[in-house]
């Protein structure tokens, strides 16, 4: 089986000839990979900083899309041929999505809408789950206001759509070239980032690495998202 990954922890990524994954056990599915996501976290997997159960020789890749080719005992809701999308960590088979097939825990797999292209779907799981979990952690109600810094990023653009769908008033910071797209996704007022710094007051904001802002004044930061937006986004 062809793949791309590492021969040892912290080795350089290279093309590999890998053994096929084992048949799925109880609660597992085997998926033929159609597309796999790539993100900066891959280097953390490669060097062992993020332990996802990789057992080199092994393919990298913690997210992807494909079709089910085999179903283990006790698995319901999936059949051979179903289009799916998934984020997996740790790997039950010791190897990831950058290969022709990957063994997955069925509970970590979701059916993929037939109209959703597998290439687009493969880039959704990590960013989408991060956005969903961040929004759930804030426990906002319809009508609340939310500032999203970096709204045009891979996670930010998903968070904008989820927040707008939940009935929140969304404001996002982004470059001017992204403003039209963000308005189409539900942001009521994309604001331009600048390099001017100023001291900001409290606001409610979320970024991929921040669940809730501090109630105390923020330190000196770029103007985007911290001073211009404070009044508009405070509850």
Largest sheet: 5 strands, antiparallel
In percent, how much strand structure appears in the residues? Answer: 25-35%
At the fourth level of CATH, the homologous superfamily of the largest domain is Medium-chain alcohol dehydrogenases, catalytic domain
Quickly give the CATH architecture of the largest domain: Alpha-Beta Complex
- What is the overall silhouette? globular
Number of helices: 6
Give the terminus-to-terminus CA distance: 54 Å
- The parts where pLDDT drops under 50 for at least 5 residues are 194-235
Q: What is the share of helical residues?
A: 10-25%
Structure classification: alpha+beta
Text of the CATH class of the largest domain: Alpha Beta
**What is Rg?**
20 Å
CATH topology of the largest domain: Quinone Oxidoreductase, Chain A, domain 1
Compact description:
By secondary structure, the chain is of the alpha+beta class.
Walk me through the structure.
- With 235 residues, this protein is an alpha+beta fold.
- The protein has helices at residues 42-46, 118-122, 125-138, 156-165, 179-185, 230-233; strands at residues 2-6, 14-17, 28-36, 58-59, 63-71, 83-87, 101-105, 109-111, 145-148, 169-174, 191-192, 197-198, 205-206, 221-222.
- It has two domains: 2-123, Quinone Oxidoreductase, Chain A, domain 1; 126-233, NAD(P)-binding Rossmann-like Domain (Rossmann fold), CATH 3.40.50.720.
- The protein is built from six helices and 14 strands.
- A five-stranded antiparallel β-sheet has the order 7-3-5-6-8. Strands 11-10-9-13 form a four-stranded parallel β-sheet.
- Helix 3 (125-138) packs across helix 4.
